Model the fold of this input.
Amino acid sequence: MICIRPSITAIKDQADKRFLQGDTFDLLAIKPAPCKCNHNLYDIGLRFPNKVLGVQCRCGHIHASSEIGWYASYMFTDTEVMKDTITELICTTLI
Ligand SMILES: [Zn+2]
Ligand SMILES: [Zn+2]
Done:
């Protein structure tokens, strides 16, 4: 098994200072956001056991999650590239 994990860099400070501009992370997973902004949500490896998180979107929608901190793709570099490589994030078996 190989998992492709692109590195992404924050271009904004997160509101709760979970990460700051310039911080880099391995992108672990992507899912489409349910709000109207047409962005994705990234799992960058931040975990908050036994917590329910509410991350406010730029449109005002609250993206709620538990344990895994999902953050909006527009907070990071390379979001356009990522749209083309989403499928590559899925772990694939090398033959
Ligand atoms: Zn959103
Ligand atoms: Zn939104």
The pocket of zinc ion (ligand 1) is lined by residues 33, 35, 37, 39, 57, 61, 63, 72 (CB under 6 Å). The radius of gyration is 13 Å. The mean pLDDT is 81.
